[in-house]
Specification:
Strand order of the largest sheet: 4-3-5-6
Helix content: 25-40%
Low-confidence stretches: 1-31, 37-46
Structural class: alpha+beta
Distance between the termini: 42 Å
Radius of gyration: 17 Å
Number of helices: 11
């Protein structure tokens, strides 16, 4: 119920196994509160894929972030994600604060930023009655997670995996495991995931750490660029 959940902006704790309210909000913000709480409480934790991600983040001993070098990562990248997912957002937030979020998108290539569920899908799947999610996101931009499409002329598309059962990108996420994957990808459905030279790597903590280790490389003028949207 809205009155139960409208108590704050939920973000992952350091362990990424639970969520904590950080920002008190008024009743005028109830739609935004529902969106944020629903993201953490229902759309992630109560879904099978969310539980797989929680288990993987908690139990894996993979440390690929320390072993994969930048030189080994030359060539194509693909990033699979849910736009609203708190695990994805920890990666996006770090990149934004480091001033390299746009560089990351360019390195992956907007065409290879593969989103299978966006903010709109998240809201639609909960039947909240919110019709203009874009306006909602803009209104509460200062309180929101990172929106990958902010400032972009052409938006990175997201499928409606939960509300409309669109599954092309999700199927690609699963299929990517077949060409090779790190042990951090304990399930083929875990996201976020990054595919580098046909090998899939998982765990938001490891992805975040590896990108943090390579912030200087992301700032280079001769950064290799991925494919843009057509």
């Amino acid at each position: 119920h809205p009155s139960t959940f409208c108590r704050g902006y939920l973000v992952p704790r350091r362990s990424e196994n639970s969520f904590t309210p950080l920002l008190h909000i008024s009743m005028a913000n109830w739609c935004m509160a529902i969106l944020l709480v629903m993201v953490a409480h229902d759309a992630l934790a109560n879904r099978d894929e969310g539980m797989l991600t929680l288990e993987a983040e908690s139990n894996s001993s993979s440390t690929w972030a320390d072993s994969l070098t930048w030189d080994q990562a030359q060539g194509p990248w693909t990033f699979y994600y849910k736009e609203w997912c708190p695990y994805t957002q920890t990666v996006f937030k770090m990149l934004k604060e480091a001033g390299v979020f746009e560089a990351f998108v360019k390195r992956v290539g907007a065409a290879n930023m593969r989103c299978f569920s966006g903010f709109e899908d998240c809201v639609a799947s909960q039947n909240l009655g919110v019709t203009d999610v874009a306006d909602l996101l803009q209104t509460y931009a200062s309180q929101l997670p990172v929106d990958p499409n902010t400032g972009r002329d052409k938006e990175i598309p997201c499928e409606y995996f939960y509300s409309k059962r669109q599954h092309t990108v999700h199927d690609q996420l699963i299929a990517a495991s077949a060409t090779g994957h790190d042990k951090s990808c304990s399930s083929e459905k875990i996201s976020p995931a990054i595919v580098i030279k046909n090998k899939k790597y998982c765990e938001s903590g490891e992805i975040k750490k590896w990108l943090q280790n390579n912030i200087a490389n992301l700032k280079k003028e001769d950064l290799e660029l991925g494919p843009d949207l057509q």
